[in-house]
Amino acid sequence: MNQNVQKEKQNVLKEEENVQKEKENSVGSSEAPVQNSGEITASASSKGKKSDSSTTDNGTSLSGKGGTDDIQTIANPASIDVLVNKQHKLPENYAPDDLVYPNVRFTFKEKIKKRMMREEAAQALEKLFKAADKDGLPLAGVSAYRSHKRQKTLFEAYVKKDGEEKARTYSAYPGTSEHETGLAIDVTKSDGSCAATGCFAGTPEAEWLAEHAHEFGFIIRYPEGKENITGYTYEPWHLRYVGQSEADNMFKNDLTFEEYADQALVATGS
Ligand SMILES: [Zn+2]
Question: Would the keyword Nucleus be found if you checked this record's keyword annotation (predicted)?
């Protein structure tokens, strides 16, 4: 038994190494969405319950100045429609327990963690990719799941290099990256070009996604012109699975996830 655990550990380490290597080649692009204004105030958070506010996990060196005090810890991290953003973070010890490998094209061959998604999202993604294929706009996955540990390691390295204030402008604070939920994925054209970079905007693939992602339960999480609500610049490549009816609702009413969550709070009167 011990041997197995040991083996698994080694595999995980190996994977992390691979991810590290890849990441080093692409620092500064995709998952470090640049958003410079530290003054963003997302409307969803202000209405959230105050009960568990400012749970700044037992004094990690990361907390403190720089606006981390108003980050609330999410109570329902495993729900499909969990809202994760700069004001709502996943609990320190959360990891999804139903991660699988979606059977879709990726921009790399390795069977590593960043290929994984939660089961329901993975199945929906397979359908979405098939539909895109059918419409002559084949896609490829770039990056899906990222462990909390991984995000933390990355962020801490950035802080060391640039200081926390600067690091926070281009890297998600640990626990606040949607990729940690296993419900988000960055995609691009099947030839791998424009992977999680601005040149993906305006491509037929990006336009197809904007129009059809909701049919499969996904939303374009950081739409154009909503930066002051989501806290992120436009990312036409970042898909978030929220479930069919939620995605339809947000699409039809042209709502960001934050706006949708706000309305849901009002609707339930809580
Ligand atoms: Zn992303």
Answer: no
In a domain? residue 129: yes
What pTM, to 2 d.p., does this model score? Answer: 0.76
175's CB contacts (< 8 A; 6+ apart) are 71, 73, 89, 90, 91, 92, 148, 151
Structural domain including 96 reads 35-268
Q: How many domains does one find in the chain?
A: 1
Question: Which position among 180, 205, 235, 259 bears the catalytic label?
Answer: 235
| Structural tokens at position 230 | 């989501």
What is the per-residue pLDDT across 205-256, written as a single tens digit (0 to 9) for each? 999 999 999 999 999 999 999 999 999 989 999 999 999 999 999 999 999 9
Whether 156 is catalytic:
no
Q: What is the CATH number of the domain that holds 80?
A: 3.30.1380.10
Whether 72 contacts 89, CB under 8 Å: yes
Tell me, in angstroms, the distance from the centre of ligand 1 to residue 186's CA: 5
For CA atoms 161, 163, 164, 165, give the dihedral sign: negative
237 C-alpha to center of ligand 1: Å? 7
